[in-house]
């Protein structure tokens, strides 16, 4: 029995060693690719035509869709920030997803909306609409009140009502920068290959000072949990996605700020209401649809349009969010398993989906198994205490390298956090997030994995930061 | 003491430690260097900005500025470049800014950069020459339109449009079919750039538009002419109303809608057959154009389009009817008598969106007039289709007691039915 256990642990150890080396090699490659791509992008921004597009009648109209459920605290700020974007033709459609608080009343009161009647074409089937609210003095704002059915269904409702060829999803607790939308649209206008979706950068709103729904000054939050997430978002957006974008391999565009070509989304059947992360599932479907129809397409991520969003400030809510994200990733991959290693899907089937499966989905599981295996190996006397410590140290040092490299990338590119104190705090959190925070994250993701296996696939409601500085 | 495996791990740890320390050091150094650089740049920008404006206001000759010709890429050189760019954005100093870019060596420097092999460096130089409006650089920029790199060609088209000379315009128009056939620049990019040439370019665009055999280029030029609302493009647009390509027809209608406000009735008639075009987007543009032109003869045909298969056409037709006809009430009432629910809903929606519903409600206050009966009937149908919110809103706070009574009766009739 013992010999079997020893053999098993040895096998697991070798697997983990190999997996760890493989994943880190991929991360290092992504980092290097991102460095090159993002530095080139920064030079390109100098001659970007987005300023011309702000006043051009050729810039395509966009509907900004804001799905809101119990967002009375922040909804006015979000709507004001979206109405203030620098874009020639846009409409803001807020979909009140059956909120039980005063979200709708707040909107009606603040923007002096009146109930109006609109023809509702239920192209993407949704739950019934209860009413439309409009004020001719704010002609590009429309509020839809509908029965509660989740974010995906609300966005489908917004798509049905939208009259523009493109729509942009924005979370109800987010704030768009003035030029964010036109920057997001620029690749679509300029590209000779149809861009069917395009995502921008999400940054952490906690700590940021706002005035009339716009960012007045940037500061860092006091909460350590929010600080860890700032470093994490820099890592995800400045090197993860930039690297994947370089090979048209983006599967995750944040639902908090993404632009879509409406016709492609309607053809694909809209958002799927049963997925807990509807945005990722949709992107995966859009990839597949375009490949199956053999139509040229591109799904882009660009690193300079910014949307600021609130992040959870306590572990309970953060845990819920991370479990939901991982569950969504798992659902998307399982639903699209037929494309995995399928020659018909080319790079998407052979590189992109396997990357998300092997690196993104399985890594927390392997990490947690790894901790257990290393401890067992030590207990069985298969590993010396020195080796165990060295291996752990190597994992931590590599994590610190990735975090600090992301902060370096931010420093050489956008430098959004202006003070010395900001930089030093970011570097500090970039180091200490590897002592506990990352491991907790892996644990939550591992939990999501297990929950999926036992059939617990519900959406967990997340309440985000509450101490936002409103100037 | 350590096994081989442990030594390998130690080596990796040492390596990463070194890399981390380097990255930390580099980050801090970058911050310090950037702060110092921007401090100098800001100081110089402020100093040179004031000095330049003083010299220009004082009517000094451009030779007086020779002291500001700094070595290229120095901090001072960048500061002067920023100052000159800001001068271009100020009408008062715009022309001086253009000359100084040339005199202080920025044109020569950027023209030199055009020989660079890197697409980014080359595009950046092209963009700067465009923003500096260096007319003298047109000849050097034009050959770049024949490059294979999408980025360089896009930026060159834009730069030429900012320079805005006739030579630049002709160079772009000459190559337009080639650029499209090679899929080298997106259509939206080209059209945005062509618009920068302004209404004065309309005649040349028409001349080239006539020459284009391919419908794609012709439609593209018509699109720009529509944006420019150029009256000299009208004959060209009318000639293309029966073009074989639907997009050309639609874009021609856009030109007519945008620039044809003062057209005689006879010419407006030639738009009418396009309301029955097989392509929906042609019918849409025809309805839109006729709504803008307010052509009374079009009303019966527009009424037919109120039940078009395409909702965008229906909406455009409803808007056009409201704008054009005094008897919109009768037309809407006829349409509301159809069995197509979507068509009826579209009409109701347009009646609300165009605020026509308030005219209908006001008509309830004059029971003796012919419009009273028709308005009442339309409002009743609107209520039955679920478009009665404005009626209820009026009941809550409308000023006229008589109208409120009428509305109450309509609502009661509907409840009873």
Whole-Å distance between the termini of chain B? 97 Å
Multimeric state: heterodimer
Rough outline of chain A? globular
Order of helices and strands of chain B: HHHHHHHHHHHHHHHHHHHHHHH
What helical percentage do the residues of chain A reach? 40-55%
Strand elements of chain A, count: 12
Give me the secondary-structure category of chain A: alpha/beta
Largest protein interface, residues of each chain: A-B, 46 and 59 residues
Tell me the radius of gyration of chain B.
32 Å
Number of helices of chain B: 23
The average pLDDT score of chain A comes to 90
Explain the overall architecture:
The complex is a heterodimer of chains A (471) and B (417). Chain A has 471 residues and is α/β, with parallel strands linked by helices. A 10-stranded mixed sheet of chain A has the order 3-4-5-2-1-6-11-8-12-7, with helices on both faces. A two-stranded antiparallel ribbon of chain A has the order 9-10. The longest helix of chain A has 44 residues, at 2-45. Helix content of chain A is 52%, strand content 15%. Chain A is globular and about 75 Å long. Chain A starts with a helix and ends in an 18-residue tail after the last helix. The relative contact order of chain A is 0.13. Chain A has a domain at 1-47 and 206-251 and 291-298 and 320-471. In chain A, helix 1 runs parallel beside helix 13. Chain A has helices at 2-45, 50-54, 75-83, 103-110, 151-161, 180-190, 224-245, 262-267, 278-292, 315-335, 346-361, 363-379, 385-412, 420-432, 437-453, and strands at 62-68, 90-97, 114-116, 129-134, 141-146, 166-171, 174-176, 195-204, 209-211, 214-217, 257-261, 298-309. By secondary structure, chain B is mainly alpha-helical. Helices cover 71% and strands 0% of the residues of chain B. Chain B is built from 23 helices and no strands. In chain B, helix 1 crosses helix 2 (75-88) and helix 13 runs parallel beside helix 15 (280-293). Chain B is extended, with a radius of gyration of 32 Å. Chain B starts with a helix and ends with a helix. Classes of the chains: A alpha/beta (471), B mainly alpha (417).
């Amino acid at each position: 029995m013992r010999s079997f256990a020893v053999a098993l642990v040895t096998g697991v150890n070798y697997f983990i060693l190999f997996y760890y080396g493989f994943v880190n090699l991929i991360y290092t490659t992504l980092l290097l690719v991102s460095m090159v791509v993002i530095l080139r992008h920064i030079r390109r921004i100098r001659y970007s035509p987005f300023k011309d597009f702000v006043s051009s009648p050729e810039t395509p109209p966009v509907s900004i869709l804001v799905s809101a459920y119990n967002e009375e605290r922040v909804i006015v700020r979000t709507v004001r920030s979206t109405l203030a974007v620098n874009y020639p033709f846009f409409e803001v459609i807020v979909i009140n997803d059956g909120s039980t608080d005063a979200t709708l009343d707040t909107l009606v009161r603040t923007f002096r909306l009146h109930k109006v009647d609109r023809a509702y074409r239920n192209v993407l089937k949704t739950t019934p609409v209860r009413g439309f609210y409009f004020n001719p003095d704010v002609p590009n704002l429309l509020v839809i009140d509908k029965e509660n059915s989740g974010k995906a269904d609300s966005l489908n409702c917004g798509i049905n009502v939208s009259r523009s060829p493109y729509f942009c999803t924005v979370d109800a607790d987010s704030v768009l920068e003035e030029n964010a939308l036109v920057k997001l649209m620029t690749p679509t206008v300029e590209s000779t290959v149809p861009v069917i979706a395009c995502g921008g950068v999400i940054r952490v709103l906690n700590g940021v000072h706002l005035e009339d729904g716009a960012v007045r000054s940037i500061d860092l939050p006091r909460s350590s949990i929010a600080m860890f997430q700032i470093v994490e978002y820099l890592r995800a957006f400045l090197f993860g996605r930039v690297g994947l974008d370089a090979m048209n391999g983006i599967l995750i565009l944040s639902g908090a700020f993404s632009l879509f070509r409406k016709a492609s989304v309607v053809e694909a059947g809209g958002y799927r209401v049963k997925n807990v992360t509807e945005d990722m599932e949709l992107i995966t479907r859009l990839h597949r649809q375009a490949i199956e129809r053999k139509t040229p397409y591109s799904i882009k991520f660009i690193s300079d349009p910014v949307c600021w969003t609130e992040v959870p400030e306590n572990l309970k809510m953060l845990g819920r969010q991370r479990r939901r994200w991982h569950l969504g990733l798992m659902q998307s991959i399982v639903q699209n398993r037929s494309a995995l290693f399928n020659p018909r899907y080319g790079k998407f089937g052979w590189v992109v989906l396997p990357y998300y499966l092997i690196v993104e989905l399985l890594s927390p599981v392997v990490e947690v198994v790894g901790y257990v295996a290393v401890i067992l190996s030590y207990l069985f006397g298969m590993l010396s205490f020195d080796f165990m410590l060295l291996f752990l140290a190597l994992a931590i040092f590599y994590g610190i390298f990735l975090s600090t490299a992301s902060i370096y990338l931010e420093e050489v590119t956008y430098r959004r956090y202006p003070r010395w104190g900001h930089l030093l705090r970011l570097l500090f959190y970039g180091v200490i997030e590897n002592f506990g925070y990352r491991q907790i994250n892996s644990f939550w993701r591992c939990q999501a994995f297990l929950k999926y296996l036992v059939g617990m696939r519900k959406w967990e409601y997340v309440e985000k930061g509450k101490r936002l500085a409103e100037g | 003491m350590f096994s081989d495996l442990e030594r390998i791990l130690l080596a990796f740890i040492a390596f990463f430690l070194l890399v981390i320390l380097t990255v930390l050091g580099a980050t801090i150094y970058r911050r310090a260097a950037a702060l110092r650089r921007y401090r100098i740049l800001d100081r110089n920008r402020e100093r040179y900005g004031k000095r330049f404006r003083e010299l220009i206001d004082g009517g000094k000759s451009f030779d007086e500025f020779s002291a500001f010709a700094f070595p290229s890429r120095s901090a001072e050189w960048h500061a002067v470049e920023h100052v000159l760019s800001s001068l271009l954005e100020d009408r008062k100093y715009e022309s001086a800014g253009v000359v100084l870019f040339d005199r202080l060596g920025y044109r020569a420097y950027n023209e030199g950069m055009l020989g660079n092999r890197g697409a980014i460096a080359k595009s950046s130089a092209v963009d700067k020459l465009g923003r500096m409006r260096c007319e003298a650089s047109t000849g050097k920029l034009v050959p770049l339109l024949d490059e294979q790199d999408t980025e360089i060609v896009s930026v060159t088209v834009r730069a030429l449009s900012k320079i805005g000379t006739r030579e630049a315009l002709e160079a772009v128009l000459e190559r337009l079919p080639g650029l499209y056939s090679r899929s080298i620049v997106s259509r939206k990019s080209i059209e945005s750039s062509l618009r920068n040439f302004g209404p004065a370019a309309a005649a040349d665009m028409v001349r080239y538009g006539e020459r284009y055999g391919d419908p794609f280029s012709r439609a593209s030029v018509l699109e720009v002419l529509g944006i420019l609302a150029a009256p000299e493009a009208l004959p060209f647009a009318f000639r293309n109303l029966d073009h074989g390509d639907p997009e050309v027809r639609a874009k021609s209608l856009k030109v007519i809608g945008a620039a044809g406000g003062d057209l005689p009735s006879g010419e407006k008639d030639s738009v009418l057959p396009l309301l029955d075009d097989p392509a929906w987007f042609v019918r849409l543009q025809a309805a839109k154009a006729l709504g803008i032109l307010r052509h009374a003869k079009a009303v019966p045909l527009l009424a037919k389009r109120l039940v078009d298969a395409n909702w965008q056409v229906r909406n455009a037709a409803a808007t056009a009817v409201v704008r054009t006809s005094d008897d919109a009430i009768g037309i809407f009432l006829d349409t509301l008598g159809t069995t197509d629910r979507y068509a009826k809903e579209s009409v109701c929606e347009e009646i609300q969106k165009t605020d026509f519903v308030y005219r209908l409600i006001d008509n309830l206050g004059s029971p003796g007039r012919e419009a009273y009966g028709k308005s009442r009937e339309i409002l009743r149908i609107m209520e039955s289709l679920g478009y009665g919110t404005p009626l209820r809103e009026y009941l809550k706070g409308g000023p006229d007691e008589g109208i409120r009574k009428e509305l109450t009766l309509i609502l009661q009739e509907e409840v009873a039915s």
